Amino acid sequence: MLRAELQLALIAKQFPTLWKEVDERRAERSRSWPSWCFFPRDELKAIIDPRLPSNVNHDQRDKQLTWLKMATTLIPWRVCRSVYRFDPDIYQAVVNTSIRGQLPVDLLLKLPEWGVYIETPGRDTYYGVKSDAFVASLNFSSEDNGQPMLNMLSLFGKTEFFTEWLFLKEGFTIEESVNEALERHRIANAGLKLSTPQKELDSKEVTAHVTKLLNLLLYICQTDSEFLDVRSADGSDSVPVNPLPTKTKNGLRYFPPKKVTVWECGFRQGLELRRGLSEHSEYQGGTHKSPVTHIRAGHWHTYNMGKGSRNDPSKGRRVLKWIQTILVNAAKKPKCGNS
User: Fold this and answer.
1) 10 Å Cβ neighbour count for 25?
2) What is the pLDDT of residues 157-198, one digit of tens each?
3) Between the chain's N and C termini, which has fewer beta carbons within 10 Å?
4) In a domain, 297, yes or no
5) Are strands 294-296 and 149-156 parallel, antiparallel or unpaired?
6) d(CA 33, CA 37)
């Protein structure tokens, strides 16, 4: 059983009617929610808070808040139950990509499903533990004027986790987004007056960790199949989509898929990369080396956009766009079976 499924089992035990109530509220109100959000944090808080003891100390309240953090991120994944597994070489290339400039908010709002589970084998973290996966989903709250929020839940151990969240603000860099989140985290902890103060997190360490997770998310958010190379577990070409509700006598319900779907990311690109490098190492003739097949890391590029800007740059406006990860000097796509 996946770690995320173990966490969901704990949530269901603590709040036995939660899934039913989520479905009911979604059926009534989802038309007013953005399409990228399965269930807003405010709605979830309204369900969970009345079921928690109110006369508690600060340490107990902090533990209560973990239910909200955990459920906010995992509920969208529950109805999808997809796992994203990267080719090892492509994985390393993607996580080591630097993210400069402003966050590509539009791209991050295009998660292929409401909730995604991405494997990160043996990934070191700033908590001193290795995380083998993380779950990400998008959310918003009226307290923050509906600002899109990216929630990420890094999983380790059996049912242990830690969370990160970022406001997806236009014009913000990843460093600015992380610093804002850390400052809010600090203020919240100070308000709780915990008996054992939580460790002060280092901004650079958190930014380095979050950057790796964001790179993986950006990869699967890309819409061009050349760059979003995912295959269903049976090897057929397909793409992940959000599930539809089932009509029942008690209204529309979302039933989790019976089996987890594994989407293999970058496996064709990985084959191309390794084949290109192998062919290059065997090159014997000529006076110049043949171009090496390699990954050109995703990066930012500034364009001058607008009518007449090609002939007169002063008429244009500078627009920063994300250039997606590409494979350079690759041969034609090889046929590949199940991995």
Assistant:
1) 16
2) 888 898 999 999 999 999 999 999 999 888 887 877 777 767
3) N
4) no
5) unpaired
6) 7
Q: Do 168 and 150 touch, CB atoms closer than 8 A?
A: yes
- Residue 52, CA distances (Å) to 45, 67, 68, 190, 280 in order: 11, 10, 11, 22, 62
Asked if the model's pLDDT at residue 282 lies above 80, the reply is no
Please indicate, yes or no, if residue 122 is contained in any of the structural domains.
yes
Q: What is the pLDDT of residue 271?
A: 81
**Cα–Cα nearest to 41, from 155, 165, 133, 160:** 165
- The residue among 229, 233, 293, 237 whose CA lies nearest residue 266 is 229
Residue 103 host element (H or E): none
Residue 252: CB partners within 8 Å, gap ≥ 6? 23, 26, 27, 245, 246
Please choose, from the candidates 92, 18, 20, the residue with its C-alpha nearest in 3D space to the C-alpha of residue 248.
Answer: 20
Query: Considering the domain boundaries, does residue 298 fall inside one?
Result: no
Confidence tier at 337 by pLDDT (50, 70, 90): very low
Residue that the structure tokens 């039913």 belong to: 20
218 SS3 class? helix
Range of the domain at 247: 3-265
In a domain, 327, yes or no: no
Cβ neighbours for 73, distance < 8 A, ≥ 6 positions apart: 115, 135, 136, 137, 151, 152, 153, 163
List, in sequence order, the alpha helices (H) in the chain. 3-14, 18-29, 41-48, 58-78, 88-95, 105-108, 174-192, 203-221, 267-281
- Which of the four pLDDT bands, split at 50, 70 and 90, describes residue 288? low
CB 137 within 8 A of CB 151: yes
pTM over 0.90: no
- pLDDT tens column, 199-257: 788 999 999 999 999 989 988 887 554 434 454 555 555 778 899 999 999 899 999 99
Count structural domains, the chain.
Answer: 1
Distance CA 261, CA 232 (A): 7
CB neighbours of 67 closer than 8 A, spacing ≥ 6? 11, 14, 15, 48, 52
